[in-house]
Design goal:
Blueprint (H helix, E strand, L loop, with lengths): L12 E7 L4 H11 L5 E8 L5 H8 L4 E3 L8 H13 L5 E4 L8 H4 L6 E5 L11 H7 L4 E8 L9 E8 L6 H24 L3 E3 L4 E3 L2 E2 L4 E2 L4
Helix pairs in contact: 1-6
Length: 224
């Protein structure tokens, strides 16, 4: 994995982070931004749930927050259109999905094509969707992990940028495996964001490239 911090310094890029829950990855990203190790400014944290615990975390970090409930809209496209307008109001260079538990429609994805990243707790394309740790255990997977990918209209199907893996232990249950994978998420998500805002990672016609070379396979971070 290419080390961070070797590139030419850049002005902090505005990003918006979308969450639905505790915001573990959001906190790591925000803290990296605050200490200068990640060249971004978190312009806002937005949630589909007003009671999301991560909103309080963001507020404590003095980050603007907003919530938009899908219950207030007639259907998913209407909600996504309103969400896109809300996010666009913060003029982000990048939209970061960090535990945002809604499937986004083209109404949202369209305006931000090539500028939306997601972290997924599996080694894509294996275990798309929900309950990935449970499914990995039920399948008897020896290796599990996390992936960062560009978001497209295909659920968890956009180009994968970077992955990290670990060995599933005989003692692992769904909770312990989730906690172990989350530590990997914190590392690779910051790395992918850093690459993108420094201009090293690019969206090239429904594909990803790093340092001018097409990513035919994801970059693999260190295994544990």
């Amino acid at each position: 994995m290419t080390a961070r911090g070797e590139s030419t310094p850049v002005a902090p890029a505005p990003i918006v982070i979308l969450i639905s829950g505790r915001g573990s990855n959001m906190r790591v990203i925000a803290e990296a931004a605050a200490n200068g190790s990640l060249p971004v400014k978190v312009a806002a944290v937005v949630s589909d749930r007003a009671d999301a615990a991560g909103l309080a975390v963001a507020a404590a970090l003095q980050i603007p927050t907003a919530s938009l409930s899908p219950r207030d809209f007639a259907d998913r496209p209407a909600y996504d259109e309103a969400l896109a307008k809300l996010v666009e109001g913060f003029a982000p260079r990048l939209v970061v999905l960090a535990g945002f538990m809604r499937i986004l429609t083209p109404r949202f994805i369209g305006p931000f094509t090539g500028r939306i990243l997601n972290i997924h707790p599996s080694l894509l394309p294996r275990h798309r969707g929900l309950h990935t740790h449970r499914r990995a255990l039920e399948a008897g997977d020896a290796i599990h992990g996390a992936s960062v990918h560009f978001v497209t209209e295909e659920l968890d199907g956009g180009p994968v940028i970077i992955q990290a893996s670990l060995e599933v232990g005989a003692q692992d249950d769904e909770s312990s495996l989730s906690a172990r994978v989350q530590q990997l998420e914190h590392i690779i998500y910051v790395q992918a964001i850093d690459w993108l805002v420094r201009g090293r990672l690019r969206w090239d016609g429904n594909a990803a490239s790093l340092d001018g070379k097409a990513l035919r396979e994801p970059i693999m971070a260190a295994s544990t």
